[in-house]
Amino acid sequence: MSFEFDYDLLCELTEARGVPGYEDEVREIVRREFADRADRVRTDAMGNVVATVEGDSDYSVAVAAHMDEIGFMVRHVTDEGFVQVDPLGGFDARVLRAQRVTVHGEEDLTGVIGSVPPHTLTDEQREEDDEVSDVYIDVGRDAEAVEELVGVGDLITPDQTTTRMGDRITGKALDDRICLFATLEAAARIEDPDVTIHFAATVQEEVGLRGARALGVDIDPDLAIALDVTVANDVPQIGDAADAVTELGEGTAIKLKDSSVITSPKVHGRLTDVAETEGIDHQHEVLPAGGTDTAGFQNTAGAKPVGAISIPTRYLHTVTETADGDDVAATIDLLTAFLESENGDHDYTL
Q: Has residue 347 been placed in a domain?
């Protein structure tokens, strides 16, 4: 396909560095892009960005996607100059071996996560489970140089570019920059909405939905819609089709539940109706494990109707996360159509 959206902006967002609590680089891009797409843009004390498009009524909708990506913080530098880490977000330690990273010390340093060659592994080492606490990063310098350049608290991010793979997109931090991108694209399309829309780029989602919880109190919307990636386990390693959750290329995903939220039936029902009316490819998502910013808005400032739109993504929480271009386009289309048709009169109460 020829992507009918700003692929260069998507690459800029996904390749930017921004671990939980330190989303500065992403925040700068978001503020720049929202400046011409919203009536006002502000940042709160935690670093959440809220871009408000004024509507014709006081009824307000929050649309949230998170800026942070999983990464690490330096917890120790050994006497030999190897860097040990504390995780910022949920890592599967199995995928960390032999990865390249950037250590953000006194200067940005390329590092590699070491892996002992199979030739020299003992039987005991072969049977051990990988743990993040066992990760050692080699920055290619002697101990004295590392001591001068790296200290406890420095940040570490995966080192990966974003690229096309046929009609698909692969790279790091598609979780959740690809959804952040979708909110920017929707904001650019919407003109003169009936309701006020707060486009929120949130912080610290990967460590407990912390930014969204604070924001739910701050802007106190009448309705909240969160966007995040979801599992697409449509790969050979997953034998049971029921465990795939979603499939790439089958459209945007309308969330029914995950481990943090059961979305409001009337909200996901209307999302489905809009998708069907507009002819937007869609699928329903029942995610057994994992949470999103949706939950951060549901009851933080009292009971609120909430919904969620997801982009199916393979290989989540790795540096090769993969999404389908048509699914991204469908997500932008659904979010735009839903917001343009929201007038504040829909009854989402039960």
A: no
Rounded Cα distance, 125 and 109, in Å:
29
pLDDT digits (tens, 9 = 90+) for 156-214: 999 999 999 999 999 999 999 999 999 999 999 999 999 999 999 999 999 999 999 99
Say whether 36 counts as a known binding-site residue. Answer: no
| Count of domains for the chain | 2
> Was 228 annotated as part of a binding site?
yes
Same domain, 139 and 249: no
The span from the CA of 101 to the CA of 123, in Å, is 29
pLDDT digits (tens, 9 = 90+) for 275-284: 999 999 999 9
Taking alpha carbons only, the member of 36, 42, 39, 31 closest to residue 56 is: 39
Angle, alpha carbons 266-271-273 (nearest 5°): 90
The answer to whether 326 is annotated as binding is no
In angstroms, the first-to-last Cα distance of the chain is 42
**Residue 85 DSSP one-character state:** E
The torsion angles phi and psi of 198, rounded to 5 degrees, stand at -105, 105
205 a catalytic residue = yes
Which residue segment(s) compose the domain that 331 sits in?
7-69+172-340
Same domain for 330 and 228? yes
Same domain, residue pair 277 and 298? yes
Is 206 known as a binding-site position? yes
Q: What does the pLDDT look like over 98-148, one tens digit per residue?
A: 899 999 999 999 999 987 776 777 767 666 677 888 899 999 999 999 999
Euclidean distance between CA atoms 271 and 151, whole angstroms: 48
| Catalytic position from the list 23, 185, 205, 342 | 205
Is 346 annotated as ligand-binding?
no
Residue 341 has phi, psi (to 5 degrees) of -95, 0
